[in-house]
Amino acid sequence: MPEAAAAAAEQEFFEPDADDVLDENFPPGRRRFEPRQLTEAEEAAVSEILQPGNPAEKLFEINNTPITRKDIATLKPLEWLNDEVINCFVELLRQHASEAEQAGEPLPKVHIFSSLFYTKLAESPEYTYGNVRRWTKRAKVDLFSRDLVIVPINQGNSHWTLGLINLRQKRFEFIDSMHGSDGGRLAVLRRYLKDEHQDKKGAPLDLGEDWVDISYTAADGTPRQTNGFDCGMFMSRTAEYLVRDAVLDFTQADMPNLRRRMVFELSQKALTD
């Protein structure tokens, strides 16, 4: 794309009132993102991947995690996503965020935990910071240098939601496609951030009145799930949109296309435009 055209496209991509949005009680996300439709050849490749076969057959591997035919079948309609698919997609989000940061793109600096993090932190069998104390050290990340920390949450092995530590806007946020309450999970993230600061910085962290807790509802316009099996898709795509700094404007009607898109992205080991 010529330089002038690229600049124009980027200008159109940003919301005109981006600075105002950051000051309001809205979810993060300042840009419009419209996922492209897969090409005919890409759709054919997805259909081939979703064909029946040996459930144990390894189709591809992402960051040493194999994706089998049984795993990829969870991306068929009416199926619940499993941890393997979600964590491999998280790896693609990390890769995309890292590449964008290295390229100097105007996107949030993000860290994304795996689906195991919250369970280890809060439900093994109770809050235990020591269970995850070394996670950021192993990942070689300073959470306090990030704009946004994304925490997938598996609620009782029956529902996926998303917790956010929004350091840029000083907010702990909870996004649930069923628009339920956080059930104390934001208090867990608040406690974790304090413990992480004490451990890594050697000093207490003041999370006073300027830090707020927000559980988004239908009134906030966050995407709403209308069935009992797409929560993993809503959670994963919400995480993707946050990584892209995109407005959360997808809907239930987008899920069939987004499921097939995820199959293709996992097979390519990269997000698509």
How is the biggest beta sheet arranged?
A: 5 strands, mixed
Mean pLDDT: 91
What characteristic shape results from the CA principal axes? Answer: globular
Quote the beta fraction.
Answer: 5-15%
How many strands in all? 7
Radius of gyration: 19 Å
Q: What is the succession of H and E elements?
A: HHHEEHHEHHEEEHEHH
Order of strands, widest sheet? 3-4-5-6-7
Helix/strand-derived category reads alpha/beta
Residue stretches low in confidence (pLDDT < 50, at least 5 long) are 1-23
N-end to C-end Cα span: 15 Å
Helical stretch count?
A: 10
Proportion of residues in helical segments: 25-40%
Topology, element by element:
Layout: H1 3-13, H2 18-23, H3 40-49, E1 58-62, E2 65-68, H4 69-72, H5 83-102, E3 110-112, H6 116-122, H7 135-139, E4 148-155, E5 159-166, E6 171-175, H8 185-201, E7 212-215, H9 231-243, H10 255-268
Parallel strand pairs: 3-4, 6-7
Antiparallel strand pairs: 1-2, 4-5, 5-6
Helix pairs in contact: 3-10, 5-9
Describe this entry's structure for a reader.
It is a single chain. Helices cover 39% and strands 14% of the residues. It is an alpha/beta fold and 273 residues long. Strands 3-4-5-6-7 form a 5-stranded mixed β-sheet, sandwiched between helices. A two-stranded antiparallel ribbon has the order 1-2. The longest helix has 20 residues, at 83-102. The chain is globular.
